[in-house]
Design brief:
By secondary structure, this protein is an alpha/beta fold. Helix content is 37%, strand content 23%. The structure holds adenosine-5'-diphosphate and magnesium ion.
């Protein structure tokens, strides 16, 4: 529970209904439209510290948009999101109360790591430079410290011996593992994965999933969008099924995969499992 002063500093009016929070990530009634199309229709989701939430659902259901709102890549039109008690975006009764300052947004972004489908490595930087760049630029760490830490992280994803390689010299699976090391380099409070293996040849999928499994075991808080259902079942504490901008159903892997309650969930799994 936060003190009124802490709440005030976070930009929330004291005593308002916005008083946070239980989870590390608290998504409350989030809405988002593109033009006339509402793609998030009131999403509420909590992820506990160390928790692993896996989001599944058909293409176009709003999974990527949801991840992007968490990371400030999209502004929400309604509801609010808090990371570790600090608001990412919020709104009350149709009125945005307060625009976060650009500096606050940049700071929060460094606390939220994101790994994309297409790796998004800097092509002109080596694996080591890709991983060590942001800690120097965004967090003001020394080059030497950033380099040492980058080598540790490359080791953790099994790529210490490829530290000097450029992205074009690496396989897709290796590039994605570098991207994971890069996301970890800022010591984020949470890591978001948006279909991290969808762009990979099938034989390269497992080397990436194994790294994510290891992160899950080590207590990193994760939100993962994936179509890999076996992996989802293994790694998730919570499986979230989204369809048409809504969470249709969420629960343990056991509940969602073996005993889904909603017809839409059953119909989706009958196609993908
Ligand atoms: P998913 O990741 O589940 O496939 P997305 O979040 O990418 O779904 O997209 C949800 C819906 O929002 C889709 O209909 C998509 O076309 C639309 N959409 C996503 N991003 C934009 C955008 N920047 N502008 C307009 N429409 C968008
Ligand atoms: Mg998507």
């Amino acid at each position: 529970v936060r003190t009124p002063a802490e709440t005030e500093r976070a930009g929330v009016p004291t005593g308002s209904a916005l008083e946070p929070t239980r989870g590390l990530v608290e998504i409350t009634k989030v809405r988002k439209s593109f033009g006339a199309t509402e793609v998030l229709k009131g999403i509420t989701l909590t992820v506990e510290p160390g928790g692993v939430a896996v989001i599944v659902g058909p293409s176009g259901s709003g999974k990527s948009t949801l991840l992007r709102t968490i990371n400030h890549l999209e502004k929400v039109d309604g509801g609010h999101i808090a990371i570790d008690g600090k608001l990412v975006g919020y709104e009350v009764r149709g009125k945005r109360l307060h625009e976060l300052r650009e500096k606050t947004i940049l700071k929060q972004r460094t606390e939220i790591g994101m790994v994309f489908q297409n790796f998004n490595l800097f092509p002109h930087l080596t694996a080591l430079e890709n991983v060590s760049e942001a800690p120097v630029v965004a967090q003001g760490r020394s080059k030497e410290e950033a380099r040492r830490r980058a080598l540790e992280l490359l080791d953790r994803v099994g790529l210490k011996d490829r530290a000097g390689a450029y992205p074009r010299q690496l396989s897709g699976g290796q590039q994605q593992r570098v991207a994971i090391a890069r996301a970890l380099a800022l010591d984020p409070k949470i890591l978001l994965f948006d279909e991290p293996t969808s762009a990979l040849d099938p034989e390269l999928v497992n080397e990436v999933l194994d790294v994510i499994r290891e992160l899950a075991k080590s207590g990193t808080t994760l939100i993962i969008v994936t179509h890999e259902m076996g992996f989802a079942r293994d790694v998730a504490d919570t499986v979230v099924f989204m369809d048409q901008g809504q969470i249709v159903e969420q629960g343990s892997p056991e509940q969602i995969f073996t005993n889904p309650q909603e017809p839409r969930t059953r119909s989706f799994f009958s196609k993908v499992l």
